[in-house]
Write a structure and sequence with these properties.
Elements: H1 16-33, H2 46-51, H3 54-57, H4 63-68, H5 78-91, H6 95-124, H7 133-144, H8 149-153, H9 158-180, H10 184-199, H11 206-216, H12 222-228, H13 230-242, H14 245-248, E1 252-253, E2 269-270, H15 276-295, H16 306-313, H17 320-333, H18 339-356, H19 373-390, H20 396-414, H21 421-431, H22 436-448, H23 452-465, H24 470-482, H25 486-499, H26 504-516, H27 520-533, H28 538-550, H29 554-567, H30 572-584, H31 588-601, H32 606-618, H33 622-634, H34 641-651
Helix pairs in contact: 1-6, 1-7, 6-7, 6-9, 7-19, 7-20, 9-10, 9-11, 10-13, 11-18, 15-17, 17-18, 18-19, 21-22, 22-23, 22-24, 23-24, 24-25, 24-26, 25-26, 26-27, 26-28, 27-28, 28-29, 29-30, 30-31, 31-32, 32-33, 33-34
Length: 652
């Protein structure tokens, strides 16, 4: 008698219905996420990893440098950085193509999920006449689930959609191998597996998913399974080495069980300092909360406060292990009758496992990051959908479709959260009202918008909730500097430096405040120290060039401003500054070329026309100088009448 799983490698007939589902899935995904194409970058890693990252913006960066950055560390992602670099080279710091490419990848991933679910469901033979509809609904849930907004709408999270693209592609190739036994599918799968890991280290979990798929397909010849996977296992071993997971598979926690610790503190302790029981309970808490959020995605945020969450759960945190273990026991007990239940639960735990050991990033508690569920939630919905259908309830597919509809509506609304940094951090504060890091970043956004009142209020709140938040002191220092309160700026910058002596941004900020008071020696000391700590600190470089200029050290100023323009060739201000430097060195033709470039880049800056007018007058080109000074006057510059009279007299 044949096993009921035999002959399941018979391909399902492709028809127009499948093509319609694919087109409908792609269209719905684009419609739901369409608003992100108008979104800006956010000041949460988009700056440091994309449009301020030398690996992305420096034209002279070698390809090997991309593959050396983060080498042998869990955050190794050279392919992701390469994709950013290629886009920046073509479009510059324009957020639209970054968001568009993320959306395209997510749409492709949804289609891949449709193909994978179709094969798995056909193999399981859950119930007839669902081979097309159910995979479509599952893929639609994947596409529009609100927790995926973080991975799609956040430019930096190209990591998620890119590694998942290679992950799903590799998995699909392996399933094709199981169905037709063509070994080239294994080789392609191994290659795609490697590309997934090079996009984000979480892709390394694929090898376990492939073994899990073997179990689902009732393959029990362990020796044969291992031998056929040699290319994949080699890729796995190389990946362990490249990502440093052999020696660095550790995380950090923020003392979640210490209720007196300050929320959002910039200091954190190793998980090694936590009792083993607490660490284990914490893992169960995270699994439970992720499971709950996936089914009921409400009050979503890019950051969750671990302490607030644990305190809110109270004694219930000790019940969460029982909940998770109960589901695991039931899934294992019914593994033969309902294999999809154990498969889905195991897929969820395997693919989310890297996120379980990460409880703190940069001191602001990435306790429950939505992005870690990008792959994992698929396991829950596969288990839920196929299990419900086994009870032959005709309304199940309608229930699942209603879930997709509700998720889609929430997803559409959630995309608005990522419009800009202000809306992003406002949502974080709504969910975690005492999140110091969120106040600090929103205050930084308000400062960039010129709303100093709101900016100062937010930095004060950030310091109120965490007196050790050195970035908040540094950000408040910038506000004081912008308002001409240099003494206060120096005081706050010094507080930030006292809390974090190697914080080059605060050191550079203090140098700028010293320079504004004419204390150039103190300013240059700070700029030099900041650049010694971080040679890529371009703010310190530009400020030092200005300090050199103001202190009459034109040679040193010229070197710095030229280095800066190598990095940022579209900086009109720096072309203007170099023109002033060259003017003082009597290199008038070169100075004029730089001013011409500054005006081309920013034709509405009155200071440039005024400076060029004086330069042209110095060169004896009075008619041109008169036109420039009149243009500066039209733009609102206050010009001495005697200078205009002088130009008119000499231009006749």
């Amino acid at each position: 008698m044949k096993n009921r799983h035999e002959s399941k490698n018979i391909p399902v007939k492709k028809d127009r219905t499948q093509n319609i589902y694919i087109l409908l899935l792609a269209a719905l995904t684009f419609i739901i996420y369409s608003q992100i194409l108008k979104n800006d970058f956010v000041n949460f890693d988009d700056d440091v990893l994309i449009y301020e990252n030398p690996l992305v913006i420096k034209s002279e960066t070698q390809l090997k440098e991309l593959f050396e950055w983060g080498y042998k560390a869990p955050h190794y992602k050279p392919l992701t950085i390469l994709s950013w670099r290629l886009q920046y080279k073509i479009w510059g710091a324009n957020p639209f193509p970054f968001h568009l490419f993320n959306l395209i990848l997510h749409t492709i991933n949804a289609i891949l999920v449709l193909f994978i679910c179709r094969k798995l469901i056909f193999h399981l033979r859950v119930t007839p006449n669902v081979h097309l509809l159910l995979p479509f609904i599952l893929a639609l849930i994947f596409a529009v689930h609100p927790m995926h907004v973080e991975s799609v709408a956040w430019a930096v999270e190209r990591k998620d959609v890119l590694f998942s693209f290679f992950f799903f592609s590799s998995w699909l190739c392996y399933i094709n191998f199981l169905e037709n036994k063509k070994y080239y599918w294994i080789l392609i799968s191994a290659l795609l597996y490697g590309l997934s890991v090079l996009s984000k280290s979480m892709g390394i979990t694929l090898v376990a998913v492939l073994f899990l798929t073997d179990w689902l397909y009732q393959r029990r010849n362990i020796k044969a399974i291992i031998i056929e996977k040699i290319p994949i296992l080699i890729t796995f071993i190389i990946s362990l080495y490249l990502t440093g997971l052999l020696s660095n598979f550790t995380g950090h926690t923020t003392g979640l069980f210490d209720t007196e610790a300050s929320s959002g503190s910039v200091t954190h302790e190793s998980t090694e300092s936590q009792p083993s029981t607490n660490k284990l309970i914490l893992l169960f808490v995270k699994l439970f909360l992720w499971f709950f959020q996936i089914i009921f995605p409400t009050r979503l945020s890019v950051l969750y406060s671990g302490k607030e969450t644990v305190n809110a759960l109270g004694v219930f945190i000790f019940v969460t292990p029982l909940f998770i273990l109960a589901i695991a026991i039931v899934a294992f007990y019914f593994r033969k009758r309902f294999p999809e239940l154990l498969f889905g639960l195991a897929f969820f735990i395997i693919t989310i496992s890297p996120g379980l050991v990460i409880t703190d990033i940069g001191g602001h508690g990435a306790f429950l990051a939505n992005r870690y569920t990008y792959l994992a939630q698929l396991g829950i919905f596969i288990a839920l959908a196929t299990l419900l259908l086994r009870v032959n309830n005709a309304s199940v597919k309608y229930l699942l479709f209603c879930m997709a509809l509700v998720y889609g509506l929430i997803c559409f609304k959630t995309t608005n959260v990522w419009q800009n940094s202000g809306s992003l951090w406002t949502q974080v504060i709504k969910v975690s009202p005492q999140q110091s890091y969120a106040y600090s970043n929103r205050g930084q956004y308000y400062r960039q918008q010129g709303d100093y009142k709101k900016a100062l209020a937010d930095q004060n709140e950030a310091i109120k909730y965490d007196s050790n938040n050195y970035k908040a002191y540094s950000n408040r220092s910038k506000i004081h500097f912008d308002q001409g309160k240099s003494e206060l700026a120096i005081k706050d910058a010094s507080c930030a430096i006292e809390l974090m002596p190697t914080f080059d941004e605060a050191i550079s900020n203090r140098g700028a405040a010293y320079a504004s008071l004419g204390k150039f020696n103190l300013a240059l000391n700070d700029f030099n120290k900041a650049l010694e700590i971080n040679p890529e600190n371009t703010d310190a470089l530009s400020n030092r060039s200005l300090a050199y200029y103001m202190s009459k050290n034109f040679e040193a100023a010229l070197v710095d401003v030229t280095d800066y323009l190598t990095l940022f060739p579209n900086s009109a201000d720096m072309y203007n500054l170099r023109s002033l430097i060259l003017n003082n060195k009597n290199r008038l033709d070169d100075a004029l070329m730089d001013l011409n470039q500054a005006i081309r880049l920013d034709p509405k800056q009155r200071a440039y026309y005024s400076n060029r007018s004086h330069l042209l007058a110095k060169m004896g080109r009075y008619t041109e100088a008169l036109k420039d000074i009149q243009r500066a006057q039209q733009l609102g510059a206050k010009i001495e009448p005697s200078y205009i009279s002088f130009l008119k007299e000499n231009s006749q």
